[in-house]
Design goal:
12 helices, disordered N terminus, seven-stranded mixed beta sheet, 300 residues
């Protein structure tokens, strides 16, 4: 197995069964599992839901899984990279997985932004990553949590002990639930996401500085009074409901000319983050190669 796709595997069927008993997965459900690995979750899912579709990247593991579940008519194993797998364009489905932690951001983006997203997502993931996507009441709101809150709720179900996994992880790991809202708080998301991306990436540290090109000074004062913050507050101090209020003011009372300011902000921010990630990755690779070269030199 390639190192970058390695995972920490659960080893207790009893624990997996207990976790699934806390889910809303039923015998009527089709559940997609990302990276089944050795099949411990797959096996328990097959007892609980109508159909399990396991998407396994590793060729050897995929073949072993196919052999293991040959006699399970409700289990289908597909050898493929989940990030390239085509999710269902229609119909209801759910996702349950112990995801590769280094692919968390890519996987979350794929499932949360898909045009026909799963109704329920059950992930075993790093606790710190969950906080970024969940926001309050578990943590302060972030751009990442606010981008998805109009469409999904987040719930922490269980926090694991390190000994529950092999190999033993260094990070805190939890079992979480993201559920699609029956009625979204916002119906059209493009302007909302551009609005958030613009405010978070705008120059300055305070609400006053970051929104001065969008709102007049009088509008800023009225907004602060409504959402109960000061002009000097950080935008991370704004509660989710406050952001909905803020966005509503933007839609109703800001001129079309000023609304143009936010156009393309989400795409621009994503491109900037992608470039930073690429630079960081190249630096790390360069450091690793240098370190490896020094070690080899010392051996000679």
């Amino acid at each position: 197995m390639r190192i970058e796709h390695s995972q920490n595997f659960l080893h207790s069927k009893r624990l997996v069964s207990e976790l699934l008993s806390k889910s809303n997965i039923t015998s009527e459900d089709t559940v997609i599992e990302i990276g089944p690995g050795k099949g411990i979750i797959t096996e328990e899912l097959s007892k609980k839901c109508g159909q399990v579709i396991g998407i396994e990247y590793d060729k050897e593991l995929a073949h072993l899984l196919q052999e293991s579940f040959t006699n399970k008519s409700n289990v289908k194993i597909i050898e493929q990279d989940f990030l390239k797998y085509k999710l269902p364009n229609n119909g209801v489905y759910k996702i349950c997985a112990n995801i590769p932690f280094n692919l968390t951001a890519d996987i979350m983006k794929k499932v949360l932004e898909f045009e026909n997203p799963p109704t329920d997502i059950y992930f075993i993931m790093q606790y710190e990553a969950f906080l970024k996507y969940a926001g309050k009441p578990y943590y302060c709101e972030s751009l990442r949590s606010l981008l998805y809150k109009p469409w999904f709720t987040a719930e922490l179900i269980h926090e694991f002990q390190p000994s529950d996994f092999h190999p033993v992880p260094n990070a805190r790991i939890c079992f979480v639930h993201f559920q699609k809202k029956c009625t979204p708080d916002i119906t059209e998301g493009t302007d909302y996401k551009n609005f958030l991306s613009y405010v978070f990436s705008a120059a300055g540290n305070s609400f006053k500085e970051k929104t001065k090109k969008l709102f007049s000074y009088e509008q800023q004062k009225r907004i602060c009074k409504q959402i109960k913050i000061s002009m000097d507050s950080s935008v991370t101090a704004i509660a989710y409901e406050g952001w909905l209020n803020l966005y509503d003011v933007f839609l109703k009372f800001v001129s079309n000319e000023k609304k143009e300011i936010i156009r393309g902000s989400e795409k621009h921010l994503k491109n900037s983050q992608k470039n930073l990630h690429k630079i960081h990755r190249n630096r790390n690779n360069g450091y690793s190669k240098t370190k490896s070269y020094k070690k080899n030199s010392e051996k000679k």
